[in-house]
Every structure is written in structure tokens, then in C-alpha cells.
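Quick one: C-alpha cells for this chain, please?
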Amino acid sequence: MTTDPATTDPTTHESMTTDSMPQDTTISNRNRWIALYVLCGGMLMIVLDVTVVNVALPSIQRDLGFSQSSLAWVINAYLISFGGLLLLAGRFGDILGSKSVFMAGLAIFTVASLVCGLSQSQEMLVAARFVQGVGGAMTSAVILGMIVTMFPEPRERAKAMGVYAFVASAGGSVGLLAGGVLTQAINWHWIFFINIPIGILVAVLAVRLLDRPAGIGFGDGADVPGALLITTSLMLGVYTIVKPAAEKGWGASTTLELGAVSLALLGAFIAREATASNPLIPLRIFRSRNVSGANVIQVLTVAGMFGMFFLGALYLQRVLGFDALETGLAFLPATLIMGTLSLRYSEPLIMRFSARGTLVPGLLLVAGGLALFARAPVHGNYFGDVLPVMILLGFGIGVCFPALMTLAMSGATPSDAGLTSGLVNTTAQVGGALGLAVLATLSTTRTHALTAAGKSEAAALTGGFHLAFLIAAGLILAAVAVALTVLKPENALAAAAAGELAAAQDSGAGGASEAPYREAA
């Protein structure tokens, strides 16, 4: 197909007109790409912090005297504030300016990391982790929106999304390796101290390289009730998943009651936004089948993969006897393959086969890798039973995640880019929390049943992991079904949006800014 995609994508018409002006384009382009790497450096710091702590938990428990149940709050305190504030932080990026929110979040995250590293008590560490989650939400929520604004041309955007997708997807496995190295070579305090020089460097470069566009402002006033409803709903929902659901089960009364309250608050928020004169989160972004479908796919995909990486690390450590450093190294092949595909080949693949056409094969490779992992034996070996899984997952994630990010941000307008970015990050966090809670619970239940039936500890653990990996593969196949039935091919989307844009211009309605969201009809 020889048609330049930039000429057929109405969502980039206005930006392309501006970009085509011949004024310092070489310097501008160079600075944009450097700015992209700066933003991804900030994102990597946030992503690493989720998994780097997992490796250090035994050392933290011994040093600060955590009980097994209270130790979970080192993770949960971060997840509750992080997952609960992503959507609100993304919208504040639109209202107040994305750079302002990014810089404020970076400062909060860096200072909180220092306090985490200096912590000498349980209370101090848990409180600092909560604040760290606030900063992480503010920083990461606006990054995708800033990338979309910086790269309006489809080919460049696809390449930029490949860089972002690699950082977002491979950062977890890099965190396992970094956590093992720092914890074993120095001590657990340095998994937090390492954030300080990175945060300062990112902040200095961001001040110089990132534009500071004005936000859209609060208009007729701040939607305080909407902000309170969505933040409370998401925080309570994340708490329900990581605490009572994971510890007492999904059928426990506490889980059901808190879950019902969270859903009721979400319903009240939707009703509020549908009737508010100046809604905090315009519901029109959900009209796009590609945006809504991509976020559903992300929930399912991240749920499967997040649980797999966590339980896969446990299989390597508790069944095959790997230490923390060996576990991190075991995931390295998948990380290298993801990086090669995301950074070098995602853009040509998306431009050649479309984002939708690239997404489905990638998801199928991920499902195949998870199904293969469900056959890993008790007395397995890395090269025969684990490395093939890592290779399949590396190829699958490296292919599908850049395409998924492209689709999820396909309906973003300049005034809603932060909100759409926050939504993408929120669905990723919800998917990860759900996946970990569900798969870990089902795996533990299966392990207990096999132990009661007389199986050895290693065999019972492996049986539980097998069940979790199979369910994870099923979640990925469900994501494939959503992709095939909900997502619209990009050429059809572009044609529909072009028709809407032309109709708006002919009628003088000035509705161009909402054109990308109308394709659902």
C-alpha cells in the first residue's frame, strides 16, 4: 500500500500542517526523540519499582521485623495510591498542563524513594511507599499523552510507542534482575536509593527538553465530587483486590461488601459525569471502539502476564531452586527479545500490517508461551523447559504491546491526551492487581488440594502453577476474541473519521475535535 498514512489520518491533520513548516526541523526532531527517552527513563523508574521490591521482600522482612501478613503492605501501600490516582492524575495533566504534573510527580516520587531507603521502621516504610505511589501515578499517568502530542505523524508515533511499550512491558523483568543484584551485592535500601540519581537526571533533562503547554483549565469550575468519587472507587477497588480478595478469597463477605461499595461509587461517578456541566472525565472517550476495546484487551493481557511473571519467578525459586539473581537472569532473554522487536521492528510491522493486524499474532504467541509453561515439570531444567517459554513470550509481548498502546491512544485529542493516557495506565494496574490476586489464589488452592492428596511439596506447587498458567493463557485468548470482534481495522476507522471531519467542516459545526471518538456509531 503506497498511500502515506499521514495523509489519511484525520486525527493528525492539524498537527501535520504545523509540523510541515520548515523551521528548525532538525533540531526539533532531535529534541523530540531525546525528550521521548527522558520520558521513558521516568517511566522505567516507576515500572522497576513495582518488581524490584518483590525480590528484596525477604531482606526487608528480616531487617524491619515484618510479619508475613504485614509484609504485604510494602507492596499494597504503593499499589493502592498508584492505581487509585492514575485516572485523576491523567486528567489533571490535561487541566493543569502535562509537564507540570509530570515534574511534580517526579519530585514526590524521588523524595519518597529517599525516605523509603532511609526507613528504619515498618510504619515509616509503608507510609513512604504510599507517598511514592502518589508520585508514581502523577508521573506515569501523563507520559503516553505527552508522547502522542509530540509525535502526531503515524509512522513516528508507531516507533515512539515501540520505545514506550518496551519500557512498560520489559521493565518488570529488568526490575527482578536489578533487585537481585542490588539486594545481594549491597542491601535492600539501595533498591530505593537508586531512584534518586535517576529522578534528578530525568528532572534536569525534562526541564530543558519538554515543552510546557498550557492546560485547558477548569472551565466552569473544578468537578470536586467527580474527583472524590473516582479516586475513592479506584482506591477501594485496588484495596479489595490486594487485601481481602487475595487473603480471604473472592467469596468472602468482606470482599463482596467492599467490592460492592467500590462498584457503587463507580456507578455514582459515571452518573455524575454524564450530567455534570463541566465533567472531570468526559465520557465521550469511551465511544471509540478501538480505545475501549484496547483497554479491555489490556486488562485481560496484563492480568495473564503479571500473574505469570510473579508465579513464574516462584516456580524458578521454590521448585527449581534458583536464587534471586538467577531468577532475574532467567527472564533476561525475554527482555532482550522484547527490546529488539519493540525498538527496531514495531514501527515497520504496524505500518505494514496495521496495529490490529500486529496485535492478534502477538497475543497468540503469548498464549502459546503460557500454555507451554503449564507443562514445566517438577524436575525441569532451564534450557529445556523455561527458555522456550521466555522466547515465545519475548516475541509475543514485543509484537503486541506497541500495537496495543497505539490502539489505546488512537482516539486521543490534545485536550484529552492525559486522560486517555491515565486510562491506559489504570487498566494496566487493575489488570495486574486482578491477575495476581486471581491466579495466586487459584494456584494456592490447587497446591493445598494436591498436598492434602499426598503429593510432595514440589509436585503440589508445580500443579498449582500449572493451573495458573493455563488460566493465564485463557485470559490471553479472551483478549484475542475481543480484538477480533470489537476492534475496527484502522483503514475503516480513518475513513469513518474522515467522513465525520468533512461533515463537520461542511456544516460549520466545528466538531473536529470529537471526530476520533465518533467511530463507535
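Residues 1-27, 492-521 have pLDDT under 50 and may be disordered.
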